[in-house]
Structure formats: C-alpha cells, structure tokens
Amino acid sequence: MSSEKGNVARRRPQRHQNARAFKNDKYDTSARLKKINAKLHDGVCQHCKGILEWRVKFSKYKLLSKPKKW
C-alpha cells in the first residue's frame, strides 16, 4: 500500500497464511496454564467475555495477583 492519501484499496491477496491454528498449550504445560484454560468467564457482558476468551486463546491472559476489593 502506498502512503498516498486515499489509496487504501489492496490489489493483491494476503501473502502468508497460517497452516495451523495457534495452540497456547503446545510448549507450556504448567498447572497455571491449565487453570487459566479451565476458567469460565461468567458475570461479564458479551463483549468483555469475547475479549477474555481471545486473551486466553492467544496466551495474553494474566491472573490477578490479588483479588479485587469492593
């Protein structure tokens, strides 16, 4: 794509595509990761639930270090 203003149309297909899906437990088989994969995200809106599931799927999710205080 050119940096010229208004030229946003792509004229070729994507060059590289993944042959296999990402596996977040391929190399890391710790108890912490198993706990994260088993976690259910209840009590949140649909949008936030989708974000949390994406984070778990691609190993971006981090557990809270301390529980949240109300």
UniProtKB/TrEMBL annotation:
Pfam families: DUF2039 (PF10217)
Region (Disordered): 1-26
Organism name: Pavo cristatus
Start-end of Basic residues biased regions: 8-18
Signal peptide: none
Annotated PANTHER family: CHROMOSOME 9 OPEN READING FRAME 85, ZGC:101016
Protein name in UniProt: Chromosome 9 open reading frame 85
Superkingdom to which the source organism belongs: Eukaryota
